[in-house]
# Entry
Amino acid sequence: EIPPDVSEARARLARKFGDARTGGKGTQRRKFKTVHKASVNEDKKLMSVLKKYGVQQLPDIDEVNMFKEDNTVMHFKRPNIQFSVRENVVSISGGYEEKDLK
# Structure
């Protein structure tokens, strides 16, 4: 049988850490969960690949609509559009709204 002070200490630990184990039973607990932020390196890699393709800016485009199969539309306002005729590559970046097609 487990003494009451041990069971009380275990209950306090369970409240404090919750479900923060890195592995199965008997493994070390983490003090806090790590929250991963969006990586800036990914954007740099994408820009370097686009630069390799020789993309050029396409100015004066006010909006872009991309229609998806589930009857929704990705609506970009003032997007950043880059293209390469030689490589047949088009890059559209920027914030978008997702709207239902009616």
Notes: Residues 4-17 form the longest helix (14 residues). The chain has a mean pLDDT of 85. Strands lie at 56-57, 63-67, 72-77, 80-84, 89-93, 96-100. DSSP finds two helices and six strands in the chain.
